[in-house]
Design brief:
With about 110 residues, this protein is mainly beta. It is about 0% helix and about 55% strand. The relative contact order is 0.33.
Length: about 110
């Protein structure tokens, strides 16, 4: 499985960005796709995930500001990020998981200026 993430960039505080991550290869129908982030000097943390059935989970720090969604026909997961804060600055990684397997994308940098 290969993952290609895009959509990062530089934005001012209060702005919005939309990340996309397309999965290709041996995709199974029952899976979980997720976004993680890693800020400088910090551990990678879960931002949000979504099952193939559409159930979602969010980190408390982004709840109400970020929205995860997916297009199963395109094997693509999205992260709509609104009301961005400087503390959201990080490299964002997408992850595709099924059973005990997990695959990571290459990461896309999001920088929020104050």
């Amino acid at each position: 499985v290969q993952l290609q993430a895009s959509g990062g960039g530089l934005v001012q505080a209060g702005g919005s960005l939309r990340l996309s991550c397309a999965a290709s290869g041996s995709i199974v129908s029952v899976n979980v796709m997720a976004w993680y982030r890693q800020a400088p000097g910090k551990q990678r943390e879960l931002v949000a995930d979504i099952t193939s059935g559409g159930s979602t989970k969010y980190a408390g720090s982004v709840k109400g500001r970020f929205t995860i969604s997916r297009d199963n026909a395109k094997n693509t997961v999205y992260l709509q990020m609104d009301s961005l804060k400087p503390e959201d600055t990080a490299v964002y990684y997408c992850k595709y998981s099924y059973s005990w397997y997990g695959y990571w994308g290459q990461g896309t940098l999001v920088t929020v200026s104050s």
